[in-house]
# Entry
Amino acid sequence: MGLLPSISQDLRVTIPEVGYVISAYALGVVVGAPMLTVLGRNLAPKQLLMLLMVLFTVFNTLSAFAPTNTVLFFTRLLAGLPHGAFFGWGRWWQVGWHSKASRHRPFQPCLLALRSLICSPCR
# Structure
């Protein structure tokens, strides 16, 4: 991964220690999607999607300013939690608006926005 050496240098830890941050994010996605889907089932879809995106943005911002690898690990874990739930709820919510032929179109801007947030430089 291209960012691992830079992050390990900034935080003064080894590359394998920084690698755990990637695993933390993946664990957050796997745990967060079902957990937040169940917890958010009583909210209106639009409210839930906004809440998930706010959480995603806050935790990614905190990750960008993490002073230590431990803080980075936990902020990335927390940033992963809303990721899977956002995609599941967002896709489900938007599918109902469109005909079968055009159901893929409205979700493309969401994917582009999320990709740009994830791929933007963190330092």
Observations:
- The chain has one domain: 4-119.
- The mean pLDDT is 83.
- Residues 4-119 form one domain.
- The chain is about 75% helix and 0% strand.
